[in-house]
Structures are given as C-alpha cells and as structure tokens.
Design brief:
By secondary structure, this protein is an alpha/beta fold. The chain is built from 7 helices and 8 strands; from the N terminus they run H-E-H-E-E-H-E-E-H-E-H-E-H-E-H. The protein has a 5-stranded mixed barrel with strand order 4-7-6-5-8. The radius of gyration is 18 Å and the shape is globular.
Length: 260
C-alpha cells in the first residue's frame, strides 16, 4: 500500500473517491451545490454523464469544461470539497446555494451576492484565525452580477451569517443575535467556502437564492414551500451560474490570489 504523506497525494486520491469522477474529467471552472436535482438538471441540459450516484458527492462536466458538484450540506462538507478541489486547481468556483432571508427586503425568490460572510460555523477556525474575514473573489462576482442583470433580475448584496447549527428557528435568543448582527441572510456553508477557498488559493463566489424567511412566524421552510421555490426559481439560479462561469472561462480572465 502506498503511503499518502502530502496534501496533494491525499486530495488527488480522495476527490475521485468522493465523487466517482476521474481527475481528468474535472473542468477548470466549477459550480457547487447542495442539491442532487441541480446536477441532474445540468446533466440533462448538456447530455453529460453523472458520476458518483453511489458516492457521497455527485458530479458532472459538460463539453465546455464546466463541472458541477453536489457536495452535500453543512460547513464540514463545504471545507472538504474546497480542500479536495485543490487537487485540480480550478480557476473559479461558484456556490449555488439557498439561504434564509433575514430582512424584510429579502423576499423568497430573490438572489443575494454576498460581499462577505460571518464565520459562525467554527469549521473555518481550523484554517485561519477568527479575525480573517470570509470574502469572495469580487472579480468572479462581477461576471455573476452581469448575468443576473442580463436576465432582467434584481439582486441584493450584503453579509451572510454562516452557522453550523441546523435547528435554530425556535430560538428567540438566536433570533436577537441575528438581528443585532444586521446580516441579510443565513446559511451553513458560505463563510467556510470563502475561507477554505482563500486557504487553497481558489477564486470563489456564491450566488444565494432566498428560499425562506425563518425569522418570521410563517416563514420557516417546509417540504411544501421548498417545492414551490424549486419550481419557480431553481432553473434560473442554475442558468445564471452556468452562463457566468462559462463566460469567465471563454474570456480566460485570470483572477489573482494575493499571498501574504
């Protein structure tokens, strides 16, 4: 048995192990999601194979070299995929996620391009001290912004609070903390993706779809309400992500990562 002593050896072995997709099949631009139906729809659009249906993560790559991966849910999975992607050194990664809206202006179906994320999940502390902000690559976000506007759709910007706590909607003290932090939305992955992307020198961004307004009495997500969101907005969410990352790849613009 070969010993795996370096991070590169581990990630090059584990990325195919987790996704079922050979390293040579990964494109240089990547869409990340938490949902299997995004990968399935992507594969149907481009007639490409879905790998990993019997693995922890599912992945597909189209003929333009754009890969989509369903990596699961939560900050630990977000850190895992951003570490594993270092094996193929992608030029850009965009997270297509859902979030809870925390403002009256963040109605269901709106898109949010986060300018930053608060690191409430704890996972990112294994990568950088708490003082390091979780930020996207703003040049990547410019491509996403242009595509949103090309579809005549409005979007919000603001700070996302990322938590590792899944069931909190009943907790009024937690609601108060969220209010005091003046965040626009809450999720479980964005801050981790930004920080671990920074650690691995990967250009990264997030386009979040507001799927519920959990700080209102009738706004907590249910299976029925999530079906409505999926039916009305998921196709557009995926389409914007595909167009933004495809154009970024076609233009070949390099997004620099500054070392400190």
């Amino acid at each position: 048995m070969n010993k795996m002593l370096t991070k590169s050896q581990i990630t090059r072995n584990w990325l195919p192990r987790y996704t079922g997709m050979p390293l040579g099949e990964f494109g240089k631009y990547v869409l990340l999601t938490n949902f299997g139906n995004y990968v399935k729809h992507f594969a149907e659009m481009f007639g490409c194979k879905v790998y990993g249906e019997d693995r922890a993560m599912q992945a597909a790559t189209n003929k333009d070299g754009l890969t989509i991966i369903n990596y699961g849910i939560g900050s630990s999975n977000a850190a895992t995929i951003m570490d594993l992607l270092s094996a193929v050194a992608p030029k850009g990664v965009l997270f297509l996620g859902k979030c809870g809206g925390l403002k009256t202006s963040s109605e269901i179906g709106h898109f949010i391009l986060p300018i930053a994320a608060i690191r409430g999940e704890g996972t990112s502390n294994d990568y950088f001290p708490p003082e390091v902000p979780a930020l996207p690559s703003f040049k990547l976000h410019k491509f996403v912004s242009d595509k949103i506007l090309a579809h005549n759709v409005d979007y919000r910007t603001g700070v996302i609070y990322t938590t590792n706590r899944r069931v909190w909607e009943h907790d009024e003290e937690f609601h108060k903390r969220l209010h005091d932090m003046t965040c626009i939305g809450i999720d479980m992955e964005t801050a981790t993706l930004f920080i671990v992307g920074h650690a691995n020198e990967i250009a990264r961004g997030a386009l979040l779809l507001v799927s519920d307004v959990p700080v209102t009495p009738d706004g907590v997500k249910t299976e029925e309400s999530d079906r409505v969101v999926t039916a009305n907005w998921v196709d557009l969410h995926l389409q914007i992500g595909i167009e933004a990352m495809t154009e970024l790849g076609n233009k070949g613009e390099k997004i620099k990562h500054f070392r400190y």
